[in-house]
Amino acid sequence: MGILYLVRHGQANSGGLHTSDVADGAMEETYDRLTPLGHGQAEATGRSLAARIGGTEESAARPVVLSGPLGRQLSTAEGVHAELEAEGLEPQAIRMVEQWREFSSDDVLAPYFRAHPDKLAEIRRAYEAARDNPRGMKEHNRLLGHAIDAALREWRSTPAFDAFSAQVRQGFSDATSLAVGDQPVVVVTSGGPISMCAAELIGADWTRLINNIFTTSVSVFSVRSAGKAQLLSFNEHAHLDIPDASGSRPLRRYR
Questions:
Q1: What distances in angstroms separate CA 221 from CA 56, 118, 148, 172, 186, one per listed residue?
Q2: Whole-number Cα distances in Å, 6 to 15, 35, 241
Q3: Which segment of 22-36, 154-168, 176-190 scores lowest on mean pLDDT?
Q4: Where residue 30 falls among pLDDT bands split at 50, 70, 90?
Q5: How large is the greatest C-alpha to C-alpha distance in the chain, in angstroms?
Q6: Contact predicate 6/218, CB 8 Å
Q7: Smallest Cα–Cα separation from 221: which of 232, 213, 210?
Q8: Could you tell me which of 181, 180, 187 has the C-alpha nearest to residue 225?
Q9: How far is residue 133's CA from residue 206's CA, in Å, rounded to a whole number?
Q10: Closest CA to 251 of 234, 190, 239
Q11: Strand ranges of the sheet holding 228-236, from the earlier edge strand across to the other edge
Q12: How far is it, in rounded angstroms, from Cα 58 to Cα 41?
């Protein structure tokens, strides 16, 4: 039995949502890079995976590391890969795989915000208020989550969603083909593909899963044959729960 690990990328620059022309499709380029916290999350995830893979029956095989082509995905994969290497697991070179690309936030969110400028204004007000009160970010995230849910529901009725679904299915099938060879396979991707893979296997609503995935969380699948997998766990994040000196858990973030 092979094991496939799907890892969400680290925290990215969500400040891109608050640029002046986000409704015109200027969010993705700004968003697509890790924050310093995101780099730290990638390293913590790599250490956790190294301990996990090193203690399995497949540990004699060199881990395969796949990554989507986006900047935030590749940077996270590099951090994970470096930690696997530091632990002596000799991972194979990172392979960039187009099928693990996330959908473009510009294609999904920009049309929604053009149609609902009041929602964007409300989110921006909450974001500005949170600058003076860090606890206020909870309200910002709540509003943003509702907007993303609504935008995704609208996007699901478009041909672009059908193309995205087919792309992810192909990526998942190819990854299971690698994992069935008893070598651990780590895929660094995003919330959209991970939630789609999980939702299809357990019959869940994709839009309900996607907004509940921590950055650099790990979802685990067992693989018995190419294209055939079982979801063992979803959104694991114990490796992000390490408290700092103040008792807070800075690595645990949804966005």
A1: 14, 41, 27, 11, 11
A2: 25, 20, 19
A3: 22-36
A4: confident
A5: 56
A6: yes
A7: 232
A8: 180
A9: 33
A10: 239
A11: 95-96, 64-67, 185-189, 2-8, 218-225, 228-236
A12: 25
The pLDDT score that the predictor gives to residue 27 is 75
Tens-place pLDDT, residues 55-106? 665 556 789 999 999 999 999 999 999 999 999 999 999 999 999 999 998 8
Residue entry with tokens 């709540």: 142
* Range with the largest mean pLDDT of 137-146, 167-176, 180-189: 167-176
Lowest model confidence (mean pLDDT) among 77-86, 111-120, 191-200: 111-120
Write down the pTM of the prediction.
Answer: 0.91
Judge contact between 189 and 9, C-beta under 8 A.
yes
- Which of 69, 91, 71, 42 has its CA nearest to residue 217? 42
Cβ proximity of 246 and 40 under 8 Å: no
Which amino acid type is present at position 117? P
Amino acid at 135: R
Listed residue (156, 154, 149, 145) closest to 111, CA to CA: 154
Average pLDDT along the chain: 89
Contact 244, 33 (CB under 8 A): no
Amino acid residing at 84 = L
Residue type, 29: E
The whole-number average pLDDT for the span 153-178 is 95
**Strand ranges (E), the chain:** 2-8, 64-67, 95-96, 185-189, 218-225, 228-236
